[in-house]
Design the sequence.
C-alpha cells in the first residue's frame, strides 16, 4: 500500500512535464471515453495481496502478467479482452463494452466481462488443478483533467460459476457463487515515455472467492479484502 | 493536480479499508431460564436427549438435520454441561445450556456459522406435549417415545423471534471409535471463534465444538520453555500489537507472558498449562503435539510422560502423542531414549511409521482415501488419522467412504455432524 501511495504521488507529479492534449490524441484503455482507433493494447502487471485469513504466515503479494486489449466495433461498442497470466494459473476475460461521453470531460461505460481461469500445480507430489468461469458486470466513470490525466473509477460485481479443483483424482471443490462480491478501482492514465501512455491503478476486491487462491482450498464464505495494484503500458 | 491527488487519496482511503470481521458471542440472558425454580438436568435426561434430529422450521438456515451431543468442562468442583447441535449447513453449530422448569426442559444459548460471521441467540423448549416426560422420567427411552424441541432464534443480540423446531429421529452413530480432532486446539483465529487458536480458552471450548481430541502447535521460547504457537513469528494474524516482532524463539517466556497477548487477549500458554487444562478441565481424550521447531524433544517428551501419568492416575482416558511432521523432527524423535515406546503420530510415509513405531499414521487428505494403506496400518495394530479436512463435501466423503480412525479439521463440528449422523 505504501508503495502504491509513493507511486501515485510520483505519477501525479509528472503533470509538470505533461502537455495538455485533446482527448482524441490521448492513448487510453480503461478510460471510458469512446475510442478513436480500432485497437488499443496495454502490457503490464497486477499484484494482489492475499489476506492473512487465508495466506496465514506467508503474507504474500502475487504478481501476474497483464495483457489488455480493446477492439473498437462501432462508435460506442467495443470488445474488451484481458489475459492475467502466471503460467501455473491464468485468467482470460472477454466481454462487450458500451462507452459514451456525457460531456467533454466526463464519460461512462458499461460492460460485462466473462472470464475463465485455470491452473495446474504439483503440490508435494500431488498434481492439483483448478478451473472456473466468472462474470464481471461493470460500470466505469471517467473524468478528464486538463493536464492529460485521465481518471477512471470503476465498480464491478464478481460472479463465480462452476469453481472446480482437483487434488490428484479427487475433486476438492465444486462450487457456485453467484454473487461472490464486488470490486472498486481507481485508475489513472496519462502520457509516459515516448508515445506511450501509462496506467497506474488500485483495485479493492471484496470477495468470498478469488481465483488466484484456488490452491489453498479455503473454506470461508466471507467477503475478504484483496487489494490489487495495476500497472500497465499502453502501446 | 491538487484536486486529483485529493480525490485519489479520498477514494484510496475509502476503498482500501480492510474490513474487520467480528462474530461476538450474543448475550444469552433469558429470565425464564434464570428463574430460581429452574434446576439442572440429570445425566440420564441429558443422555436421552442426544441423537439425530430433523429440522422443521429453521431448515433453510441450518440444514435438514442436526446431531445433538453433550460435553462438559470442569472448573474446580463444578462441572458445567453444554449441549451442542452440529448442523449440516455452513458449519453451523449451537451451544446451549439446559435446565428443567417444572415439566419442561429449557435450552438457552447461541448459534454460529463458522464459514461466515452469522451468529445469534436461541431459546428452545421441550414441553410435556412434545414429550418432555419421556426425557425426565427415569425409564429408558423406547422406540415409541417421540419428542420434539421447539423455540425461536435470532440474528445477533436481537430477542429470538424466528421459529425453529427439531424432531428426534434416531440415536447417534457410536459404532466404531473415531477421533474428531480440532486443529490448533479447537479452531483457527481466522474463524473468529470467541477464543484464539492455541489458547487455554480454545481448549476449554473444543469439546463444545465437537472435538474428542486436539492438535496443538508446540514451539520453544528462547529459554527453552515449550509453548503453544503456530507461526514462526509474532505477527498481526495471531497477536495484538505489542511492539515485539520477529521469530518467537528470540523471546523468553517471561517476555512473551508479560508483553504479548493473543488476538482475543489471552496469554500465550505454556505446554504445561495447556496439558493441565486438557487433563483437569476437559473430557478430551487425544492430544496431538504438532512439533513446530527443530531441536531436542526431551522437554516435550518429559511433559508428555508426566501428564500421561497424571491422566492415568485420575482414571482419565487420554493419549498424548508427539507429532512427527518432517524428517528433521523424526531425527530428533529417534534421538530420544526409548523413542520406540513413546506414543507418536507420524505424518510421513508408512515406512517411517515403522521406524518410529508410531501409534498413528497421519497422511495429508489430498493423498485421497487410501483405503488399502489405512487397512494395512490397522492390520499392524496402528491407527490412521487424516489432516486437515475442512470442506464439508470432503469430510462427508472421508467419513462415508474412508476407513480412517480420525479426522483433523478446523471445523470439528462438521466432522461431528457427519460422523454422528452416519448410518
Sequence:
Amino acid at each position: 500500500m505504501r508503495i502504491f501511495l509513493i507511486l501515485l504521488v510520483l505519477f501525479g507529479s509528472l503533470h509538470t512535464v505533461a502537455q495538455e492534449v485533446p482527448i482524441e490524441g490521448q492513448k487510453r484503455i480503461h478510460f471510458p471515453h469512446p475510442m478513436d482507433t480500432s485497437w488499443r493494447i496495454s502490457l503490464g502487471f497486477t499484484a494482489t495481496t492475499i489476506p492473512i485469513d487465508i495466506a496465514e504466515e506467508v503474507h504474500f503479494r502475487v504478481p501476474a502478467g497483464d495483457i489488455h486489449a480493446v477492439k473498437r466495433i462501432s462508435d460506442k461498442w467495443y470488445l474488451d479482452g484481458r489475459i492475467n497470466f502466471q503460467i501455473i494459473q491464468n485468467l482470460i476475460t472477454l466481454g462487450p463494452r458500451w462507452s459514451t461521453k456525457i460531456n467533454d470531460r466526463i464519460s461512462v461505460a458499461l460492460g460485462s466481462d466473462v472470464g475463465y481461469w485455470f491452473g495446474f500445480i504439483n503440490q508435494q507430489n500431488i498434481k492439483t488443478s483448478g478451473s472456473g468461469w466468472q462474470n464481471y458486470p461493470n460500470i466505469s466513470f471517467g473524468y478528464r483533467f486538463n493536464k492529460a490525466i485521465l481518471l477512471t473509477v470503476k465498480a464491478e460485481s464478481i460472479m463465480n460459476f462452476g469453481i472446480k479443483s482437483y487434488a490428484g483424482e479427487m475433486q476438492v471443490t465444486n462450487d457456485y457463487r453467484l454473487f461472490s462480491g464486488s470490486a472498486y478501482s481507481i485508475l489513472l492514465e496519462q502520457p509516459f515515455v515516448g508515445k506511450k501512455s501509462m496506467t497506474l491503478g488500485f483495485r479493492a476486491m471484496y470477495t468470498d472467492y478469488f481465483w488466484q487462491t484456488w490452491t489453498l482450498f479455503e473454506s470461508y464464505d466471507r467477503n475478504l479484502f484483496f487489494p490489487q495494484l495495476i500497472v500497465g503500458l499502453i502501446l | 493536480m491538487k484536486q486529483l491527488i485529493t480525490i485519489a487519496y479520498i477514494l484510496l482511503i475509502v476503498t482500501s479499508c480492510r474490513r474487520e470481521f467480528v462474530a461476538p458471542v450474543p448475550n444469552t440472558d433469558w429470565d425464564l431460564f434464570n428463574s430460581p425454580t429452574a434446576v439442572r438436568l440429570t445425566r440420564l435426561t441429558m443422555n436421552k436427549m442426544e441423537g439425530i434430529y430433523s429440522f422443521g422450521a429453521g431448515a433453510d438456515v441450518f440444514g435438514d438435520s442436526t446431531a445433538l451431543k453433550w460435553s462438559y468442562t470442569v472448573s474446580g468442583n463444578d462441572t458445567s454441561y453444554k449441549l451442542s447441535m452440529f448442523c449440516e449447513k455452513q458449519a453451523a453449530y449451537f451451544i446451549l445450556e439446559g435446565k428443567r422448569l417444572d415439566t419442561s426442559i429449557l435450552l438457552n444459548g447461541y448459534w454460529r456459522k463458522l464459514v461466515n460471521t452469522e451468529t445469534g441467540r436461541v431459546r428452545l423448549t421441550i414441553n410435556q406435549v412434545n414429550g418432555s416426560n419421556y426425557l425426565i422420567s427415569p425409564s429408558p427411552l423406547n422406540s415409541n417415545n417421540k419428542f420434539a424441541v421447539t423455540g425461536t432464534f435470532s440474528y445477533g443480540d436481537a430477542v429470538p423471534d424466528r421459529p425453529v423446531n427439531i424432531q428426534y429421529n434416531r440415536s447417534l452413530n457410536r459404532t466404531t471409535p473415531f477421533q474428531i480432532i480440532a486443529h490448533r486446539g479447537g479452531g483457527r483465529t481466522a474463524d473468529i471463534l470467541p477464543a484464539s487458536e492455541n489458547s487455554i480458552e480454545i481448549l476449554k471450548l473444543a469439546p463444545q465444538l465437537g472435538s474428542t481430541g486436539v492438535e496443538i502447535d508446540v514451539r520453544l521460547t528462547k529459554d527453552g520453555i515449550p509453548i503453544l504457537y503456530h507461526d514462526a513469528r509474532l505477527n498481526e494474524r495471531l497477536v495484538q500489537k505489542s511492539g515485539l516482532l520477529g521469530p518467537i524463539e528470540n523471546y523468553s517466556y517471561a517476555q512473551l507472558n508479560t508483553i504479548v497477548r493473543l488476538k482475543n487477549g489471552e496469554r500465550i500458554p505454556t505446554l504445561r498449562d495447556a496439558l493441565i487444562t486438557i487433563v483437569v478441565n476437559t473430557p478430551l481424550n487425544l492430544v496431538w503435539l504438532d512439533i513446530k521447531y527443530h531441536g531436542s524433544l526431551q522437554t516435550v517428551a518429559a511433559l508428555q510422560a508426566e501428564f500421561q501419568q497424571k491422566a492415568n492416575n485420575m482414571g482419565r482416558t487420554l493419549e498424548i502423542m508427539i507429532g512427527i511432521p518432517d524428517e528433521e523432527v523424526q531425527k530428533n524423535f529417534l534421538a530420544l531414549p526409548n523413542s520406540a515406546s513413546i506414543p507418536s503420530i507420524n505424518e510421513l510415509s508408512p515406512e517411517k511409521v515403522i521406524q518410529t513405531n508410531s501409534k498413528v499414521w497421519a497422511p495429508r487428505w489430498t493423498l485421497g482415501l487410501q483405503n488399502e494403506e489405512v487397512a494395512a496400518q490397522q492390520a499392524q495394530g496402528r491407527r490412521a488419522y487424516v489432516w486437515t479436512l475442512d470442506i464439508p463435501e470432503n469430510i462427508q466423503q472421508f467419513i462415508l467412504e474412508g476407513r480412517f480412525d480420525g479426522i483433523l479439521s478446523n471445523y470439528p463440528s462438521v466432522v461431528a455432524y457427519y460422523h454422528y449422523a452416519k448410518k
Notes: The longest strand of chain A covers residues 170-191. Chain A has two helices and ten strands. Chain A has one domain: 2-234. The interface with chain B takes residues 1, 4-5, 8-9, 12-13, 15, 51-54, 56-57, 59, 123-124, 126, 128, 145, 147, 149, 151, 153, 167-170, 172-174, 184, 186, 188, 202, 204, 206, 217, 219-223, 225, 227 of chain A (CB under 8 Å).
